[in-house]
């Protein structure tokens, strides 16, 4: 099992590690990963691995078996060896944009308080699919409401609850298609705001900014009809 270092500090850009496995496909598994693996609509991180006498570009990161996090090289050549001590260097600009978009999408689910049927995060934009038969009447008003929330400078924090506590609060789960991972005994919640001033609280395993002010202004893009009951709402960083 790989220790998810990005859980301890989403702002860490460099970390050491040791190679524990090279997969049959040429993926690299470390004892602790700074790189976030593709999940929950958030893309896997990219960057560089460096070690004495070698270096390799990491194109993306995925989940492996039994809790492993697999770093996927851009070119399957010149790999480090098992037991090799390495330095992980994150493509920070890309990751930070993912963090900004991801946090903004949480707030989009606040200004559009409808069930979410899907979503995707990119470095420039993201989108959520809503169980929304009719398009919003005033997209400009929606965008203004979202930017007002972002400008409230709310702290973004995390906490843990048990499976039973989540079962007692089913409204915390906004996503219809993806359920929070269970089995470890604890589920991670991401909270935007504090106490009675909480704007959003929901299960999430992704990386987020520490304060909504870091998101900056956003723009609501296209709103597309996706089936009889669904609308896809795009959000762009400005």
Overview in brief:
By secondary structure, the protein is of the alpha+beta class.
Structure write-up:
The structure is a single chain. This protein is an alpha+beta fold and 238 residues long. It contains 4 helices and 15 strands. The protein has helices at residues 5-8, 92-111, 139-150, 163-167, and strands spanning 3-4, 14-22, 28-30, 32-33, 47-51, 54-63, 69-73, 85-90, 116-121, 125-131, 156-162, 186-192, 200-203, 218-225, 230-237. Strands 2-3-7-6-5-8 form a 6-stranded antiparallel beta barrel. A hairpin with a 5-residue loop joins strand 6 and strand 7 (69-73). The longest helix has 20 residues, at 92-111. The protein is globular and about 60 Å long. The termini are far apart. The model has no long low-confidence stretch (mean pLDDT 93).
Tell me the β content.
Answer: 35-45%
Uncertain segments are none
Number of helices, where a helix is a run of at least 4 consecutive DSSP H or I residues: 4
Largest sheet: 6 strands, antiparallel, barrel
Strand order of the biggest β-sheet: 2-3-7-6-5-8
Provide the structure class. Answer: alpha+beta
Radius of gyration: 19 Å
| Helix and strand element order | EHEEEEEEEHEEHEHEEEE
Distance between the termini: 38 Å
Mean pLDDT: 93
Number of strands: 15
- What is the approximate shape? globular
Which bin fits the share of residues in helices? 10-25%
